[in-house]
Design goal:
The structure is a homodimer. By secondary structure, the first copy, chain A, is of the alpha/beta class. Chain A has 2 domains: about 170 residues, Acetylglutamate kinase-like (Carbamate kinase, 3-Layer(aba) Sandwich), CATH 3.40.1160; about 170 residues, VC0802-like (2-Layer Sandwich). Chain A is built from 11 helices and 20 strands. In chain A, strands 3-6-2-1-9-11-12-10 form an 8-stranded mixed sheet, with helices on both faces. The first copy, chain A, has a 4-stranded antiparallel sheet with strand order 13-18-20-19, sandwiched between helices. In chain A, α1 crosses α3, α2 packs antiparallel against α3 and α10 packs across α11. Chain A is globular, with a radius of gyration of 24 Å. Chains A and B meet through α1, α2 and α3 of A and α1, α2 and α3 of B.
Chain lengths: ~425, ~425
């Protein structure tokens, strides 16, 4: 078969898929299988599960604040190990294969160590290896900046490597192999009726990713959306089709709500009765942002004459630090009190259909009310509605919403 | 102090010197000390002790015969780890430092994976980092070939990296830090009177290295000799001066014998009563060399009319394989028998003085005879005499020779 008629596929295997020597061999077998069906293959690998954490711990033994440049050099060994072991496995099975690291695959990034962004990929080297009928194994998560320093893309960066390579090589599809079967209408551990979605739009996936569905790294979805790269999220352990993440299409618009997702990892801080003056939000958030704390939802609403309540959420791990910072400015801005609550959860529904359908929000509120679940914060976007509720009601809320919007296996949603 | 007046020093620390996080910090302190005395520093590091073996074992779990290219990619992570951890340690102590891997330090090698030779080093990158007042930490043992594949230099390769960098950078000296205090006139574990040598010539060091003194890798000494690079072998654990390995000088010629060294790692094979015809040696050694077996001593002497005995030594680990191969050709060449003996040791004396002094060999034989030690093979070079004896007499032979040639601390040798 000439290489012109063969499909070029990029496959990415995460840390749990290559978590042991046995698993690496299994991945090699699966890659060879795909190859034998007449495809050319570029395989992106993460570090073996636990390896990146182990390296991080090692660096912390040297110093609490390891130099970012050197930390990237250290962390890059994780993918270097898995990619060389994988190439050995493929070769031992009689197929030609070469590993390429960031500098060899010419994955050029900016200079932000620890969370570099891919700027350009020179595909010459990869294409040459493909032309010589080799399977190409590319180390995920790593690149080089313009001075040939090693950079890493941050947690989940291998997804971005895979999507960027798919775009640069104009490959047919980017297959992301993971330990779940695809994207579900809700967490199957919470909702027994949760349904695997056949396809989902980039926009919906972005909302789901940012809402705590940890299947795909959010930056890889942004990248895929920008370059229109089709992603196929599927299981390392079965041959079943997973979920296609693709550009929005006409028929998708009929779907009102695609999924329900919950996140117990946030905590809420409320600044009570602040005089409603210009610059108040800046005064509250300036020290928080300067401390590098990521704020998720922000809601402000008037409480009494000339006064306002301002609530926002941060991750539970940054809760205490944030509370201390905000209490530090409370007096200066004349707030009556600063309250904190860690026993909260965020429940969200996501769907392209919301754009054109009124009533989705009220159906959500009604459903939660029927279950006697109190909503303490609400935040909406074009295709998402998030509610903060008491943590203990999380699973009840997810199941009720999943049922109410007809997402389950029993009742097809459209 | 201007950089023009500062000495440039290359230091190399081996695997035991960087065998733990604590030891890496100690090395960082020592490097900073040298820096504060007004020197510019390039530091070459090996992988942490045990790391290369661990990676090797991992590759063997994939396949008994790992692909050489991918094995080098895997092994190179060892030095990548130690060099990044070291740079972090130095930076955490307030000094600027950068790690450079083979491709960044531009260490160009040939394409022989697993035992590549350094062809050229482009020093631009290193010099630039030095000019910016950084300590430069270079990963030992690794380079890149002309197609930017990662190569490794083989066991002990970091010594060669350090010597090659010293030559390329025209540095003042190459300091090799190790777990011994320098080069001794004999193994201090065998000879309590063994004396640390202040200096030794490249030629003597080459003989000592090839005779089993594992302080310096032999290829690094060859490299140093070729480019006249002074090597200072010294201890990681003390501040004492070690041994300078330098070009032969006039005053050195007065030294008759520099050291005694023994090696229990060899075994002997004797082909008994072969018809003494042209091509016999070729027939015996052809299958042995083709199997990649390294033969050390070869001795042939006539046994009876038209017949000859041929003996040679190989390492004990390759003994059985070699014996099988040689027995396979024994009948074809009409040999009477093939004998093997593993209970042997090689005892050698090395010294530049032998060139001009007769009687050194006879003094060696006389000394061994006085101790009733039988010699079964003898091999000589310009500055070395090696005898094969029964293994159990090794320590006795070393002590007797050390005493006979006056090498000890009590009696100065010249």
């Amino acid at each position: 078969m000439s290489s012109l008629t063969m499909a070029l596929i990029v496959q990415k295997y995460g840390g749990t898929s290559v978590g042991s020597i046995e698993k690496i061999k299994k991945v090699a077998e699966r890659v060879i299988e795909t190859c034998e069906r007449g495809n050319r293959l570029v395989v992106v690998l993460s570090a073996m599960a636990g390896q990146t954490d182990a390296l991080m711990r090692l660096s912390k033994e040297i110093t609490e604040t390891p130099d970012p440049r050197e930390l990237d050099v250290l962390l890059a060994t994780g993918e270097q190990m898995s990619v060389s072991l994988f190439a050995m496995a493929v070769k031992s099975m009689g197929y030609d294969c070469r590993s390429l690291l960031g500098f060899q695959a010419a994955i050029h990034t900016d200079q932000i160590y620890g969370k570099a962004r891919i700027k350009k990929i020179d595909t010459d080297h990869i294409l040459k290896e493909l032309d010589e009928n080799r399977i190409v194994a590319v180390a995920g998560f790593q690149g080089i900046d313009e001075r040939r320093n090693i950079t890493t893309l941050g947690r989940g960066g291998s997804d971005t490597t895979a999507v960027a390579l798919t775009a640069a090589l104009k490959a047919t599809v980017c297959e992301i192999f993971t330990d779940v079967e695809g994207i579900f209408s809700a967490d199957p551990n919470i909702c027994t009726h949760a349904r695997k979605l056949d396809r989902i739009s980039y926009e919906e996936m972005l909302e789901l990713a940012s809402l705590g569905a940890r299947v795909l790294d959010i930056r890889s979805v942004e990248f895929a959306k920008r370059f229109n790269v089709p992603i196929h999220v599927r299981s390392s352990f079965t041959r079943d089709e997973g979920t296609m993440v693709v550009a929005e299409k006409k028929e998708m618009e009929r779907v009102l709500v695609s999924g329900v997702v919950s996140d117990k990892n946030e905590a809420r801080i409320t600044v009570v009765k602040v005089p409603d003056r210009p610059g108040i939000a800046f005064k509250i958030f300036d020290p928080v942002f300067k401390a590098g704390i990521v704020v998720d939802m922000i809601v402000q609403n008037p409480s009494a004459e000339g006064l306002t309540d301002l609530s926002f959420t941060v991750t539970k791990t940054q809760f205490q630090e944030t509370l201390t910072l905000v209490r530090g400015v409370a007096q200066e801005i004349g707030a009556e009190n600063v309250l904190g609550d860690q026993d909260i959860a965020k429940v969200s529904i996501v769907g392209l259909g919301m754009r054109n359908h009124a009533g989705v929000a009220s159906k959500m509120f009604e459903t939660l009310a029927r279950e006697n679940i109190n909503i303490t914060m609400i935040s909406t976007s074009e295709i998402k509605i998030s509610c903060i509720i008491e943590e203990k009601y999380t699973e009840l809320a997810v199941r009720a919403l999943h049922e109410a919007f007809g997402l389950g296996n029993e009742k097809e949603k459209d």
